[in-house]
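Thread title: Can someone regenerate the structure for this chain?

I was given the following input by a collaborator and told the matching structure tokens would be attached. They weren't. Posting the sequence so someone can regenerate them.
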Amino acid sequence: MKSRPNGRPNSVFDTSETFDVVIIGAGIAGINCAYRLKSQLPNIRFTILEGRNNIGGTWDLFKYPGIRSDSDLFTFGFSWSLWPYENPIAEGPLIMSYLKDCVSKTGIDQHIRFDHKVVSAEWSSKSRQWVAIANHDGVPKEFKSQFIILGTGYYDYKTPLQTKIPGLENFKGDVIHPQFWPEDYDYTNKKMVIIGSGATSITLFPALVKKAAKVTVVQRSPSYIVSSKNSYRDFPVLRKWLPVSIMAAFIRFTFLILQHISLVYCRVYPNRSRERIRRGTVSQLPKWVSQETHFNPSYNPWDQRVLLAPDGDFYQALHSPKGDIITGHIKAITDSSVLMEDGTSIDTDVVVTATGLNMRLGGGIKVSVDGETIDWAGKLMWNNAMVEGVPNLMLMVGYVHAAWTLGADDSAWILVRLMRTLKSKGAKVATPRVDEGAVSQILDIWPLKSTYVNAARRLLPVSGDRGCWKRRDNVVVDYLHARWGNVTSGLRFS
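Best answer:
Regenerated them for you:
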């Protein structure tokens, strides 16, 4: 090996930089974490490594028609830069504009390294630091840090959920997965079938109906779809007298509390909730569409996500002669049609496989501790932010029954408080350790029974039933705990 002029061997890496914190991912969670570090710990040295060439994560990746938020942006937006528009549900381009404005005005954009795809992160107990390796323009770069933050989301960007659809290989038309919607794809006057009943499907349906000749949603089982108005102008007296910033904070708080009350109501009174949703659905359906057949799920509200249709756009599309919905099992797909088990045949030019996301924590990064690769499966999560046995690593994990950002912000606050605690103790390392008897029951980290969650359950970390190992399940309680609760229980400091 060649040597440098000082006699030391050359590193295999062109560069090696050292930070206090390395954040992986410049999506919602990564941006929020960066802001908390920048505002609460101004002397901290941090960088954000983003594998793509833009911020936004999901909102930069997904380009399918009508792509929009599936929770209100008053709570999904940042608490430190409130959503400035009147519409609680917005499409991707407006969300991207908002995010770019947030990172620009706070200076976070100066900390982002684009096209830095992190492939591995290894903790060394000897040096008490992480070493992350990122590929940039085909060249590996080394980043050392005290903490690694995984703001990589919860699904695989490259591979969607693989669902077996019989005969799909025989189809002669276009087959599109929404995660990889072709840019500038022209579907004008085409007959289209959307397979799936989740948030992506109900978003695509009203958007496609506008230009396509015919759009049919084919679902194996129904979902709850609740209409919500998409222009919020309530409290006119308050709007008249309160400053804009205070009014925006009040609206955010109102949505947060109402959202929480709605969730609790659904869990405590599932039958009443079902009936309320049923009545709302029937009132919006055309007479030729059966609520009992197509909108009567076998599960209770929030066992899976309750889907939002802003201004009832999904139901409006069903009133169009170009929109239809069929519930049942697919027998086979022929070269030009979808054949159902009941004998129904749907002629189509395009099949859209809106069959779900492939869940994956950590962005597929190989994480190891002292040479041993970490397997997330079955490991307990500490405060829904760290994983047992893994030092100085945090996952920015959000909610599935509320705005993702709310949970990710709780993790960011826990990180800030933990770093302050380490400094006060004169320590460098915090490692979650599970004492004997610390939990009596193992629970899923996400209390949903959706297909994509069930498919990934065996690969995910888990939660306990009490203490610091309990999963986040109450937005208000979790908010208070993240900012003022105990963040040392269950940790070993060194």
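Residues 168-353 form a domain with the FAD/NAD(P)-binding domain fold (CATH 3.50.50.60).
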